[in-house]
Each structure stands twice: as C-alpha cells, then as structure tokens.
Description:
The chain is α+β, with helices and mostly antiparallel strands.
Amino acid sequence: MANINHPPSKYMLNLLHVLPAFAEGEDENVINSLVEINAGTINKYEFITETGTLQLDRVGYSSLAYPFSYGAIPCTWDEDDDMLDTVIVNVTEQFVPGSLVKLRVIGVIKFVDGGEVDDKIVAVVHDDKRQDHVTDIDQLGEYWKKETQHYLEYYKHLKKPGTCEVGGFYGVEEALKTIRECEERYKTEYLPKFQD
Length: 196
C-alpha cells in the first residue's frame, strides 16, 4: 500500500496542497507529480487548484495530439498562476488520470504562453527500470526537441496564432532551480491568499 506522510482524515485531501514538490526519502531530483493528460489525446485536462478535481479544460483546437503525458507538481506556483507543469516522456503504459507518480527530473523547457512564463519540467518515471539510463534531456535527442517545440508552438495556433514560444531546452540544474523558485512562489504568493 502506498502512503503519504499525513495523518488520517475523514475528508478527502487535496494532494496539490498536501504533498511536497520533492518526493521524500528519494534523490534530490525526484519529484511528485499528479497526472492530468496522457499522450495521444487532444483533450486538455487540468486540476482545479482549490479542490484538486480534474476537469476538462478544453478540447484541443487542432488535430495535434499531446506527444507526451502531462502533469502538475504539488506545492509549486509558476508565473502563469498555475502549478508548475511536468512533461512526462518515454511512458511505457498510459497512466490513470489523477494518479500520483514519482518522476526523475531530466530537464526543463522554458516556455512562454500568451506573454506568461509557463515552464515545463521534463521527467521520466522514477520507478520504471526502462528509464534508469535517462538522466538528461539531451539523451532524448534533437528530433524529440524539434517535435516538442513544434507541438508547443502550434497546438494553440488555430485559436491564438503566434502566442506560444519555446525559449530553449535546459538540463537538470536549471530544472531544479525552476522547481525551487516555484516552491518559494507558492509559499509567498499563493498560500497567503488562502490563509486566515
């Protein structure tokens, strides 16, 4: 049985606000992520931050399907006023949406959506032995980067042309820095709005 470091409660916990960003008892580059989207769909699902409920945000504007699975890191807050995103690559089998996975960070995609910073942490499933050798985003290859950049820059193109821009692909060190900055922003900008 999987357990989290939280006392029993008669109420449903919102894991977006209960779990730490970094998985406890693991290496420093292992994070928690809650799955929102599986690869191969055009549907965009997002967690409602206040409740933790997964909702259909929209049906994609084009036939471009997500080339990777997608999630959110608990207790983080990016500059787009949302939890920090995870791009989950090399997935062996589709996830159950809403499930918690431990991911090993391999890089970050610097991304701007409609003028807002909306970075994406790139990671592989930590407990998948098939991915043990993947430790850096460069190991995914140049074609993966081109395909990912194309997807991110054009998946909203039919609705809002030219509003999405990839600013580059960076390694683990920059990714961990981004996560820590988003953890701090969660504490200083998000939490004070909801505390008594």
